Each structure stands twice: as structure tokens, then as C-alpha cells.
Amino acid sequence: MEPQADSTDADEAADAAQDATEPQADAGKPETDEAAKRAVEPQADSTDAEAGQNAEVEDGASGAGGEVGATGDVRLRDAVAAWVASADETAEAEDAAREPAQDEADAEANQTSDTGTAAPDSGTDTGTPKKGDESPGDAKPPVDQPTAVFKAVRPSAPAVDQPTTTLKLGDAAKPAGDKAESPAERTSKFVALKPLEDPATRRPAPKAPDATTALPQVTQEPKAKPPADATSSVPQVGPERTTQQPLPPRPPLDLLAELTNTPPPPETPVRTIVRRVKIWTPLVLLLAVVFAIVQAVRPLPSPELTLTADESYTFEGSRASLPWPSEGQGWMDVNGIGTMGDFGKQTPVAIGSVAKAMTAYVVLKDHPLKSGAEGPNVPVDATAEKEGGYNKDGESTLNTVKAGDKLTLRQAIAAIMIPSANNIARLLARWDAGNEADFIKKMNDAAADLGMKNTTYTDASGLKETTVSTAEDQVKLGNELVKMPALMEITSMGEWIDPSGQKVYNYNYLVPYNGAIGIKTGTTTKAGGNLLFAARKEVGGETVTLVGAILGQHKAPIIQTVNDVSKTAMLGAQDELVSAKILKKGDVVGYVDDGLGGQTPVVLTKDVTAVGWAGFKVQLSFDADDLPHTAKAGTKVGTLTVGDGSNGAVKVPVALQRDLVEPAYTDKLTRLG
């Protein structure tokens, strides 16, 4: 270690100095003493113990002469061993206790300094004589040698690494009573101390000694002993620690003014406006960006087909006048186009067997019958067989059926529509609904669905006079019946062969002439003659169907009278029908509206020919398909309907005139709805 190297250098320097000063034999001259004192003075910055030892060694050197060089090595080793042992004991005591108080450490240091320092003029050590010391009587004449040997410049102490501290043990570590030692006998020991537990109790590391310092002195203040009482106050070491709640953020301008040590400018309306603009402008820009994105990804509205052509067309000429009878009430429609004419007050009256038209409608709605098919079997029960004999009382029946027989649905419908068999009408009611009462309820429900507001059914055959209706309501029912091909195949027959092989004739004398196709007659004494009829006619390449009803004909024979007046009205209506070309192929009749202002024109794919009569106003309407957002030109997008939309109306497809494209981004961005 470096401290041992220092002692060796001191011995070599002492020998060299002795050789150099041997010619100078007068060791007792005052100049030599003064030189020795001046050599020791630079070491006055060391501890008091070192000063005492230097003085003792100087005196010893003057008195003992050459004995210093002879005994220096032995005494130096003994001193080093004593200091090492003392340092070890001190370190062990600190590790065991670790609670020395500051005042006790200071007192111990002072006491050690007092007991380990010899008087300057004593010439002997205050401690116990060490091995190798000679008695004063045996001492040789003193040899005058320069004291500069003790002032040999030693290397400066290395910087102390933290958290360890270099500790130099001085005279304070010597046991009391030891003889004072010369500087050549002194050495130092570096002890690495353990880091203190509390960094706040550490003192700054001592400054490194300069080159003129003989031995660097590094001290460390012992750790303060904590108070025994836990409730006693603890001395504050270092800056006071406080707990403070966080302050609210300061305005940016005030914080900037504090950082730059510049006070904020005074508040003015202009500065307030500028600050608000700076704050709100980014927010407004952010909202604008969000709004633009939302507008771009919003679902597009559903396109709509809009009609630009005239919504109606009126045929030339004055309104047609039909040849109606002088009594009763009547109504005439062109199926799917409109009403041609009517007469009489539309008040509910008894309709007789015309009620069987509703019976057939309800049964065929529940059990659809295909054209030309016979349909399911209808078992004949005992009641139907019994009621077949009511023909003797004037009822129209099918008296050839027996219990256990089976009629096909087609045969049963023919039996009620041609010979008007009451017993089969009641049989169908029981077969369809389980009993007649439930079936009658179904008849009235169907009438309500068709808008027959002045109609009431009380039986399935119409025999009861409480079953009432109007000509207008019966035409509403007839417009639905003509849509059932299987039924029209039956009602258009002039005669029918029953299951027994007997031929029966249709009471509707209009069929099969002049395009007549039925539908049902009904006559009673109170109701008079009644007829719901239909006829077809081809007009302008289109086939149209007339549906009419005449009620309350009491002129006998009533069945003949109602057929005659119905034929006259039917033929008159057929004569009034005309055709007119109202639109041509390629005409723009509307557009597809994309919902954001974009409009793509649509055109007709063929000529539009309407059927009507003089003075009649026909309605035009669009029926849109499932419209896409994009499509090529010529794509069908809907249908133009001329009439009321039901069977018999003229329907023409419409297509895009040019490509259908999605709305532009600017249109998406500016939409508000």
C-alpha cells in the first residue's frame, strides 16, 4: 500500500541526509535548530498530535544524534502495527454500536490528542518504551543531521471514492502512555468504511492535501445517535420536507410570463378576441374534419322514381251515357281502368242468390283451384241430401246427391254458380268452416276487406232477405272474381252436366254471347231480378274486361227482365270503349332521384296505348323496382301504369336514359337531411 511506501522513502531520505551532513559535526549550533524548526512549520496544518510528535522527534534528533537512524525502522514498524490494531478496534466498535453521539466522538478525539502528545522539550516519549530503545547512558554523541529528512515531500493523498471514506489514524489512536514517535515512525492506514445509512448525516469529503502536507488527514463525523424516545423530536438534517397539494394549472400566457420573467400584457378586448380565436380555431377545424368524414361514410338515401309526365290523360269527346233501365240500381266498371257509369241510389237491398258469388270467393280463397283442375273432394252429408228435396218448395237445389257421395270442388262450385243449388252452398260452408255460422262470419270479413261498406251476409245461399248489398259493392266483388281463371271457366258456360248426368242451363242468358263470362244471377219475390255480370272485349290490341251489376228488377218475368237490361247496358259499354296512343317509345316520363339532388332520366321502352271512353280521364303512375345506386343506361327501373293498377290496366316498362352514378363527394358533404 502507498502509506508503507512513504516510510521507506523517509528512511532513504534520512540516510542520504546523514551522509551529506557528516562533515558538519557541530550538531548543536543554533542555525541547525532553527533550520529544523522551519522544516517542521509547514506541517502545522496537521492535527495537534502530529505537531507534538514532530517537536519530540526534533528534540530527540538533536539529543540522540545518530540513534534515530538506527532505531527508526523498528519503531516505525511498531507504530504502524499499533495504529492498525487501534483502527481495527475502532471499526469493530462502530459496527457493533453504530450509535455514537457527536459530542462523545469530539470528546474522545480531544482526550486522545491530549494523552498522545509529548512536551516539546522533554526529549523522550510519553508512552511506554518500545522494543529497541536504548538508555540515555548508552547513547553516542549526537550527530548533527538536517531535519529536512522529515520534510520529504510525500505524494498527495488520492481522491476519496464515495460512499467509502479514507480514514487516517493519528496520535489519537495510540494507547495512552506510548512514547512519542518521530515523523519517520509515523504512517497512515486507509480504512474503507461502510456507507452511512442516512445520506443526510454525511459531511462533505475532506479536501485532498497538497504536496506540502506530510500526512493527509481525513475525518468522518460519526452518525448521530437517534433519541431513545420515539416521541421525541428528530433533529432536521438537510432541507425541510413538506407536503403540498398540487396547484391548478396556470394560464399559458401567465406561465410563459413567469418562465421568461416578463409580466403578461394587460388584458384588452382585442387580446381577448385573439386568444379566443386561437383556442377555438383548432377545435372548429377538428369538428370540420370529423363532419367531412361522417358525411362521406354516411349511407346514401334510397333512390326514388319520380314521374314527370302528366299524371292523367283525358279522352276526347263528351262523357258517355249508358242505356240503363228505369228502375233499380246499377254500376259499370272497366276492370283495372275505372268506372264507366252508374245509376240509381246505392242503398242496401236484398240480392238473393247473387250472395253465392261471395260463397264461391271465400271457398276458393281457402282452397285455390287451378284452371282445368277438379280440386279436392267434398263429401255429401245427410243434411245436403235432405235439403236437396227443398226444390219442391220452390228452392233451386241439386236433388240428385245422396249422403256418402263425393263431389269435386269444381263440381260443387259449378252447382252453386249455374243451377244455383242452395243445398250445395250450405254444404260448402260446413265443409270449409265446420259450420254455417263461422262461414258467414268469414263472408262478412271478406266483404269488409274488399271495401263493401253497404253489404251484410246472413246466409251462404242468399235465400234470406236479410242478406243485402248494393250494385257498387257487388262490382267490387266482381272485379276480384274475374281474376280467378278457374271460376271464370265455370261461370262462362251456358250449360252444365251434373254428377248424375243431367244437363242444367245457366240462368245468366248473356253467356256465352258477346264476350259475356258470367257471373251470377239472383232472384226472389222481394229482391226481384238481380245480376252480377262480366264481359271481355279487345280494344286497340288490349283485352279489357267489363264488370257490371243491376239490382232490383221487379218486372215479370224478373229473371228475363234482369238479363235483358243487363245485356243492353253491357253492349252499350262495349261500344263506348276506345283506344288512344298517349305516349311514344323513348319519351322521357320521369327520373331517378338519388336523394342528393342528382336526377337520371327514364324513358319508355314502347308505345303506351290507353283504353277508355269519351270524356274519361285515365290515371298514370309509376311502380318502381328495387332501385340501385349505380346502373348502366337501358336498365329497367320500373313500370308506367295507365289505369288504376288492377287487371286490365296498361303497363309499360321504363328504363334509364343514361348511366346512373353515385352522388359526388361535394353533394355528400353538403347534405343536411
Could you characterize the architecture of this molecule?
GO terms for molecular function: carboxypeptidase activity. Belongs to the peptidase S11 family. With 673 residues, this protein is α+β, with helices and mostly antiparallel strands. Among the domains are: 2-157 and 169-188, no CATH class; 250-297, no CATH class; 304-316 and 583-670. It has helices at 2-21, 30-40, 48-64, 67-97, 102-115, 252-259, 269-297, 356-366, 382-387, 409-417, 422-433, 436-449, 471-481, 485-491, 558-576, 665-670; strands spanning 304-307, 312-314, 329-334, 338-343, 349-350, 377-379, 406-408, 468-469, 495-497, 503-505, 516-524, 528-539, 542-553, 578-583, 588-593, 599-604, 608-612, 617-624, 636-642, 650-656. Strands 1-15-16-20-19-18-2 form a seven-stranded antiparallel sheet, with no helix packed on it. A hairpin with a 5-residue loop joins strand 15 and strand 16. It is elongated. 35% of the residues are buried.
